[in-house]
Amino acid sequence: MALKFKRVLLKISGEALKGSGDIYDKDKLDEVAKQVIELTKQGLQIGIVIGGGNIWRGKLADTLELFRIEADYMGMLATIMNALAFEATLRKLGFDKVKVYSSLEIKTVTSSYNYRNAREKLDEGYVTIFAGGTGYSYFTTDTGASIRAIEIEADALLMAKNGTKGVYDSDPNTNPEAKFLENLTHNDLVKKNLQVMDSTAAALSRDGKLEIVVFDMNGKDNIIKIANGDLECTVIK
Ligand code: UDP
User: Which residues are annotated as a binding site for ATP?
Assistant: First the structure.
């Protein structure tokens, strides 16, 4: 296998770390971390954004009769918790070249985000984890991932899905006739409202000419496979 990219931004949803656990599943964390370590050994430079949906989402504000803005900051904090969980898993597995940046100031356990510093660390072989999303309410970690991918000059944003191999023209879970789409343009993504990422993230990716690869992370070594161009997926460029 040969790497298809030199530098990527891997976006994982928080739910992906949950597995059958309440918040985390040890096997899921280990499985993703081991693949990331293996890819760094192959020479891939990896930035990671992890969502927070396994812990909290801003949209749940109404369930507690909270204001959306506080609820969104709670969601951003959830992404920081996930980043620390993933960092700790990498370290547990003996991999220490990892740096967590946060868009929110949490100086004890994260570094302030700085794109130049992040690029340097990636060049040095560090896995860089970008926590805290954009740092602003009313955004998502998809948008955070698009921005970080553009800023670190990633060759691609690898959008990991749970159990869907890429993009379809309709929901394959409800429509057995749904057609799989292998290649798309950014305009398709923005105009057709495809279930890849939210519209802000889609528009940003288009403006930043960011290649997006949508793939199913559930499958043995699927992250390694996708980075080596060895897995069915949808490519958007
Ligand atoms: N969030 C936010 N701004 C950001 C990123 C995230 O306000 O830039 C909040 C938002 O409330 C969101 C939550 O953090 O619901 C968790 O992020 P997301 O839903 O993107 O996580 P995922 O669904 O990918 O696990």
Answer: 11-14, 53, 57, 162, 168, 171
